[in-house]
């Protein structure tokens, strides 16, 4: 077993890098989940349990003693047991319902057989069914109740639950490894940093741990997307690059909006012109971003159903269109691959989502702690010249009584390179 | 310099082990400061500054955005400067006024010359002049305002202040070492664990980091005191050991209380009998505990003025009394060395301290987070057979609306030995 372990872990790493959900930073995650094909898949054979958590682990005000029920899933079918010191694999929940998360993390229920591991999925506070204050309505009512939705409390939840669980099953000698992808991958990394006495290791995939407080260049995000598409096809990149100007020209013409709406098969009623500009550009930008994020060598169903190598496929129809050869038709072909892989959508729906009354949890985290750094766009970027990352969270969306603390992540978890 | 550094650090360690203030866990610290001879000593040449801190670093409720002024002392006279990457030595404040702390930490103002270090003393929130809510009266009013007095917030204070300070003096490359003794030594240790990206090292002296959540044997405290006195003189140990029974016998006699009060030169008015038992025993117990804690080879002035080798001196007068040879006279001689080294006190004052209206900060910490584990007493202990560590904090002293969280320290900072 000794020599097998590292090899298997590398395999696990590779698997997870290629199959994990990319729950990214706030606005980059503002992507409609058109389909959740996996949300009803039940991997493994887990039990649903609940753990009583303190609302506030760090303070001792009367309010901090309020408790809530945190949901977690536990699968012990392959566990070798406490006496053998068999490991406990803890998948840290993100902003999704934890059963959905478990449904998309099939590899957890593969590696548990290899390592004779107990598998635990812990739901993140304020998401899924792990809602404080008895109801989502109250929990999400205002900053006073939402104030406890943050990473440090969520990490302490995991530490408390895992410590208690190990005691309860008398498995103090069972090593714990935490797993996570996307936001949960960040959390897994931070968990290992802050609770090395609880977790022997962490496996974080697709975790943008440096995407805070200007630790990386503001150009890095647009650079990476650009580079990815350029590396697939230089001419594809050029077509997309020049398309923004062409579309803007059309939009300025009389009846240009209707013309473009028809070219792009936008569902009626068509948005008015200014709105159309932002929404159409947003539609294309998201396709570029998420096809790159989900550029797997096999079919995937994470954000939307996609063919293998989606960027390659999108560039193929841009470079070698089967029908009309104008720019709009080429781009439309690419959008069809990204948004309409199943071929079931007759048109693109650009009407706004119904606005929910309260602030969403993920937006709240972006307003306070997980503050997205500014994004800039070089001249050779594939995005439009005035690209302002329009999906970026606006501070005007945030409650008035909270201010962002953009340095809190780096103060608490580090990351800025320094000799100390 | 390269090879000198480790050697000097060992010296520093030794110095600090022998000279630091023993601010111990709650009840063990319930020792009246008869004298503060050092409280007006000003070491080094520091400036007093203030830093605006968030009351709550981890939550985002409107209340958490409340700020307070944290006081810190900064001495840059020996600092080699940012360009040379000269270090920053941060002494973490404990429950004392930070100027008093700086006054008793002379070695900080010695080693700064050797290392060309900046010296910073940071006052602990809710102590000294670093009081939230504008006044101590409001800050200490109830659990709602006191709830933010805890170690995790205090550690985040240090991280935030140091990170900001380094930016302000453009000293990002200057390594930071945190220092502390007693409670502050625990804090220095935890700071290095939780903020390794801020502090390159920590020097903790006399820091009982394992004295939580039954990590060490409940007998260890009484065992260590017993062993220390026994190692000085077996007969001294035996005299003290049998004295408790003798005093109890006298107390049961008619007029025994008055007799004992006179023998021990208790100031009038004498306490009534039951009270006398507890107070007299407490007086002796504290002398045994703190003479062991302050058993330095030179004169010290930390808890009370003491001669060099106080335990040896106390045992000398117990073993070889100059005057009367009865047990009470022997013990009185020892008490005189501990409490009356200056010879200025004609009698021992056992009347109660005036009770302050609010709870003290240190008691609050003992009620909530720094929960003292139970103390047990073996048959061969030097303490009385029914020794219940009477100075131990009683839960009835704690506010009714907070409950202790005895596992919070080990969950947050680890310590229980385990293979993970």
TrEMBL record, chains A, B:
Residues spanning the signal sequence: 1-23
Pfam family, one: Peptidase_S28
InterPro entries attached to this UniProt entry: AB_hydrolase_fold, Peptidase_S28, Ser_carbopepase_S28_SKS
SUPFAM superfamilies xrefs: alpha/beta-Hydrolases (SSF53474)
A single GO molecular function term of this UniProt record: serine-type exopeptidase activity
Residue ranges, compositional bias (Basic and acidic residues): 394-404
Presence of keyword Flavoprotein: no
Disordered: annotated segments: 379-407
Keyword Glycoprotein (UniProt): yes
Keywords: Glycoprotein, Hydrolase, Protease, Signal
GO biological process: proteolysis
Similarity comment: family membership: Belongs to the peptidase S28 family.
Protein name, UniProt field: Serine carboxypeptidase S28 family protein
Protein species of origin: Asparagus officinalis (Garden asparagus)
């Amino acid at each position: 077993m000794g020599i097998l372990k590292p090899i298997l872990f590398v395999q696990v790493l590779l698997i997870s890098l290629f199959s994990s959900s990319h729950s990214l930073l706030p606005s980059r995650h503002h992507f409609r989940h058109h389909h959740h094909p996996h949300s009803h898949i039940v991997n493994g054979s887990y039990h649903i349990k609940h753990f009583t958590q303190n609302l506030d682990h760090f303070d001792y005000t009367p309010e901090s003693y309020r408790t809530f029920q945190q949901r977690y899933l536990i699968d012990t079918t392959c566990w070798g047991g406490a006496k053998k010191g068999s490991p406990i694999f803890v998948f840290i929940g993100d902003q999704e319902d934890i059963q959905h998360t478990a449904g998309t993390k099939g590899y957890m229920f593969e590696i548990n057989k290899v390592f004779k591991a107990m598998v635990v999925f812990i739901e993140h506070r304020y998401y899924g069914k792990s809602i404080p204050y008895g109801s989502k309505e109250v929990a999400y009512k205002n900053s006073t109740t939402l104030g406890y939705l943050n990473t440090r409390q969520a990490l302490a939840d995991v530490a408390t639950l895992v410590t208690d669980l190990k005691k309860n099953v008398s498995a103090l000698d069972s090593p714990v490894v935490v797993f996570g992808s996307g936001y949960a991958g960040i959390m897994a990394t931070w968990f290992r940093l802050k609770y090395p006495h609880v977790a022997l290791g962490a496996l974080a995939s697709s975790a943008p741990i440096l995407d805070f407080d200007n630790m990386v260049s503001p150009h890095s995000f647009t650079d990476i997307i650009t580079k990815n598409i350029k590396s697939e096809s230089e001419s594809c990149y050029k077509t997309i690059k020049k398309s923004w100007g062409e579309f803007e020209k059309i939009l300025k013409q009389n009846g240009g909006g209707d013309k473009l709406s028809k070219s792009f098969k936008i569902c009626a009623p068509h948005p008015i012109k200014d709105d159309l500009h932002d929404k159409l550009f947003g539609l294309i930008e998201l396709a570029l971003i998420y096809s790159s994020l989900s550029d797997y060598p096999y079919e995937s169903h994470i954000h939307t159903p996609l063919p293998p190598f989606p960027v390659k496929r999108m560039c193929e129809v841009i470079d070698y269109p089967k029908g009309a050869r104008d720019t709009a038709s080429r781009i439309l072909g690419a959008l069809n691959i990204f948004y309409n892989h199943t071929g079931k959508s007759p048109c693109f729906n650009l009407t706004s989502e119904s606005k929910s009354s309260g602030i969403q949890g993920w937006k709240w985290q972006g307003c306070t702690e997980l503050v997205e750094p500014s994004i800039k766009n070089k001249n050779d970027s594939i995005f439009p010249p005035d690209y302002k990352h329009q999906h970026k969270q606006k501070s005007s969306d945030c409650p008035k009584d909270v201010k962002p603390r953009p340095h809190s992540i780096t103060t608490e978890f580090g990351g800025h390179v320094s000799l100390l």
